[in-house]
Amino acid sequence: MSTDRAPTVRPSLRERRRAVAAQEIVSAAESHIVEQGPHALSLRAVARSLGMTVQALYHYFPSRDDLVTALITKAYEDVADAVQSAAAAADDPDLPGMVVAAEGYRRWAIDHPERFQLLYGAPLRHYHAPVDGPTTRANRRMSEVFARELFRGFTRAQLAAADVRSLSPEFLACLEELSPSSGDPAGGEALPPPATALMLSVWGYMHGMVALEVFGHTGFLGSHQADLYRMAMRNLLDDTHRRIPPAAEQTERDGP
Q: What is the model's pTM?
């Protein structure tokens, strides 16, 4: 059997220069957002900070939406990196990986409040993310990390039997289309609808607490906000896992 591999095509000098210039524009736009907030994003101001004209900037990002899409995609990738790194570095046997990953998400949000606002604050007027585009793919990557940590150790059969009896059959059918891959429990397959419902509920609770803190609504707690968050994430994880039947119970329910 031949072991020859197709040669890797190296980007041309022009392509490499274009990629570097595009990255400089994105970095300048991020700095502008940090200083002025996402709703004050101005292509003219970004171009001016780089010593270029708006017309020259359009050679790299043909519209404002293209630049915003690049900014949102990079923010999702960065927060996914933070969550993944936190989960990978977990070394306390008494602290579940899901809690560690959630704390990684919280730290990124606190360290980058303006970029967090770009992702989860009031939508930018007239901006529409491309359907199933780079922003969706980047966000899905973070979801996969949380799904893996949330459902680590459970089988697909257990996840499919999770207690979500309050949900309508129509909603569960809808979740069939939304299920992210779960990594560990389902071997890369889509999550069963009950597990997706649980994950969306966990996400809403986790994200809501972070948003309250980032936007200053729990500032009266000072440094104790971290303690509250950890307690809430532990309780949330326990409550979620109580809805998933033990393996022995699932075997009895399904029969031989």
A: 0.86
